[in-house]
Design goal:
With 112 residues, the protein is mainly α. 64% of the residues lie in helices and 0% in strands.
């Protein structure tokens, strides 16, 4: 929740809590004889590559793709068609008859 969406009462509660925390830190400092502070937060790490590095990577990728396209352009595009296997009408009929016989036997066995 952002601070702009908080009500006046919630803001007052937050301020009171901050004051209580500060008081407790002072009490701890008095007990231990030194200030106790929270460790400072580390800034978020941003991208680890420079613009020049990205440019070198992009240039290398373009060069690689240019080589790939040059090789594919040199190859013939059309491939020879594979010989298509065709089954004779007699072979189809023979397979169909065998399948029908298997199913008829299975149905007859199921009726028993």
């Amino acid at each position: 929740m952002s601070m702009t969406n908080l009500s006046a009462q919630q803001l007052r509660q937050a301020a009171n809590l901050k004051e209580q925390i500060a008081d407790r830190e002072k009490q701890l400092a008095a007990i231990f004889g030194a200030e106790t502070k929270a460790a400072p937060a580390k800034p978020a790490k941003k991208g680890g590559i420079s613009a020049a590095g990205r440019a070198r990577i992009a240039a290398a990728a373009k060069l690689r793709w240019a080589k790939v396209r040059a090789v594919s352009a040199a190859k013939p595009v059309s491939k020879p068609a594979k010989k298509k296997f065709t089954m004779s009408a007699a072979a189809k009929a023979k397979i169909s008859a065998a399948a029908k016989a298997r199913w008829a036997a299975k149905k007859a066995q199921a009726k028993k």
